[in-house]
Specification:
Elements (H helix, E strand, L loop, with lengths): L5 H9 L8 H11 L7 E8 L11 E5 L10 E4 L2 H10 L3 E3 L1 H8 L7 E4 L4 H4 L3 H4 L17 H10 L1 E5 L5 E8 L4 H17 L10 E8 L5 E3 L5
Parallel strand pairs: 3-4, 3-5
Antiparallel strand pairs: 1-7, 1-8, 2-6, 8-9
């Protein structure tokens, strides 16, 4: 294991590994133990009682965080010329079609979210190998393939995120920044957890939410008591 710096050791010492904190206390503690010299991302990791290998236990969805993520999300709108103006007006950072398809083909993926229209999806198929592994492939289930491009762009810019359980049964999501006050972190975490609860697969038996951990960039994870969310 890599040797901890003095600040990292102090952070670890402040976290009781045997305690599950209330959501509010955990949020305050994560802010306290964040020592990096930039506005660290605050991340949530939720272990679910599901088997993601089974199609009827896959958990995937979208949520609009009440206070956004604190991140400037870069959006590419791949649209036909008649939709370009509304995409730009809604705040898309990059707008176009064929020139951006070529850029992606050449290896460019410097965006966080791609929004497109049903009629354009056929052109994106060949780029699956580039976009898929990076989580950039638009999907109707997450609202990124739509005719209402302006609405989709505005929602993403306002804090809409999509999440998906990984192969180990954990959902990871960035839910804010260390500069957020405690109440904003609490609101964002609560919104995501409640969305996960609504998405519980009927095939999932036993305890659904097994553990919840909150952390920031370079900080140790803080366990949250699920009953407090």
């Amino acid at each position: 294991m890599a040797k901890l710096t003095k600040k990292q050791k102090e952070a670890h010492d402040k976290v009781d590994k045997n305690q599950a904190y209330t959501l509010k206390d955990a949020s305050a503690l994560v802010k306290e133990i964040t020592s990096v010299n930039f506005d660290a991302s605050i991340d949530l990791a939720v272990r679910l009682g599901v088997d993601p290998r089974k199609a009827n236990q896959m958990v995937r969805g979208v949520v609009t965080l009440p206070h956004g993520t604190g991140k400037d999300v870069k959006v590419l709108a791949l649209v036909t010329p008649d939709k370009e103006a509304e995409a730009k007006e809604a705040g898309a950072d990059y707008v176009g079609l064929d020139e951006y398809l070529q850029k992606i083909k050449d290896g460019w993926t410097d965006v966080d979210v791609i929004i497109t229209m049903p009629s354009v999806m056929g052109k994106l198929g060949p780029l699956g190998r580039v976009l898929g592994p990076r989580g950039l492939m638009p999907n109707p289930k997450t609202g990124t393939v739509t005719m209402d491009v302006a609405k989709a762009v505005a929602e993403v810019k306002a804090g809409k995120i999509d999440f998906k359980v990984d192969k180990t049964g954990i959902v990871h999501a960035g839910i804010g920044r260390a500069s957020f006050d405690v109440d904003k972190i609490v609101d964002n975490v609560h919104e995501l957890i409640q969305t996960l609860i609504k998405l519980k697969p009927t095939a999932s038996k036993g305890t659904y939410i097994k553990s919840i951990y909150l952390s920031s960039t370079m900080s140790p994870g803080v366990s949250i008591d699920a009953k407090s969310v």
